[in-house]
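Record pair follows.
FIRST:
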Amino acid sequence: MQLSETVRLYLTKKQYMLVSDMMTTYIATVNRLVADAVDGRAIAKLTSKDVDAYLPSALRNQCIRDANSVFTRYQKACRDADYRNARGSSHGKGIKQAAVPVLRRPCCYVNNQNFKVNGTDIEFPVMMDGKTKRISVHTKMTVRQKAIFTGARLGTMRIVYKGRRIVVQIVYEKPEQDAPAGEGCVMGIDLGIKCPAVSRCSDGSVMFHGNGRRNKAMRRHFAAKRKALQKAKHPEAVARINNKEQRIMKDIDHKISRGIINTAKKHNVKVIKMEQLANIRSTTRKSRKNNHSLHTWSFYRLAQYIEYKARLAGMTVEYVNPAYTSQTCPVCGHVHHANDRDYVCRCGFHIHRDLLGAINICNSTEYVGGRDARHAA
């Protein structure tokens, strides 16, 4: 599995200018190549000699690969737009064309053959006085990062701004563990807003993860701060507050997912089942009361964190159809809504609504492949 680590670069003034100019030139070159491809020029077979840019040859080659990737996505967007227009023309809808993608955030990519991690320094090529030269930039790495960069197989390095600082994001390969020995259990996970996650194993064990009320209070606190700063016309402070909120919420999701995987290991879980919540924001009933909570709900990020941690632990992740998982009685099969958090069935079955969802997910056999395709086990 491919993971990444972020490391800050401690650049001198000269190095900062060189790297900053290289990032700006890199993005401008990719945008120019994409525009050429849209105009009909073939870019897939270009070489570094065909690209007129003040960049090392390794980065010019990377520009070609990135531009080709962006253009491929643009072609797919055009095909999707043509399909939608063909369907919409019969209903009298206007024709919408796919927009030509333009990259705006300065950055650059260096493949693993053209950079080197040497202790706490990172070496990579830049243009200096019209020639390609390698510079060595000092960093501060943790003991864990040093061990990763020393022993793991490294992939592409991305140089990007983080605020006013420049950081590198280095991709590395981490092997996945073998599946736990023995038969193992199945775990169902119900993701929600008031209760971020509820896990239920097939052996009957239950665990509630996270605190949804605390998360909502934190989001309201940061929203009030942003509103005050926007009124005072401090856009940079608004951006800082927004970044801080995102860092805190990501950390919370990481802790929740780690707690779920630790619980799964304790109960010898082999398969984790979750709901496929694609398009949930467009299909859920909306109201002024829950709109903000619904649109700030990071269900996809939490599901991704759970999935990659599970794969590293040797567990399989499956997605099931989410329809009626919080409304179906597992005893008699009757479907009806719960009263807030309490679910009471006419057969006498009584349970917490989110735990009911976890039970039905754990028992579900209607798996979802990709986004929409479904099949029964």
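SECOND:
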Amino acid sequence: MRFLVDEDVAVEVDWALRQRGCDSVRVAEVLGFQTDDVDVWDYACREGFILITCNRQDFLELAGEAPGTGLIVLNRRRTRQSECSHLLRMIEAAGEEGLRGNINFA
């Protein structure tokens, strides 16, 4: 699975995905810092990434207006370890079929 990790998501999440063998790329690596949300969403759709973000409001709106890939809204937790754990369990349970073209919350 290919994931695009938004700037507001902790770097530990990206590391956890990579350790699990996922193709994970941070927005800042490919689009630079402070990229507009519309451009992030367009890139994820165009390149076939499932987007992971904590920015619920803006990306839920974009996903509703122009579905084209999967969206995972990561809820903030007390620890980064907990965020990673919830995300990895959700990804494993949903699989690519449950993620692609859908909105999921972890």
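COMMENT: Strands lie at 2-5, 23-26, 50-53, 71-73, 103-105.
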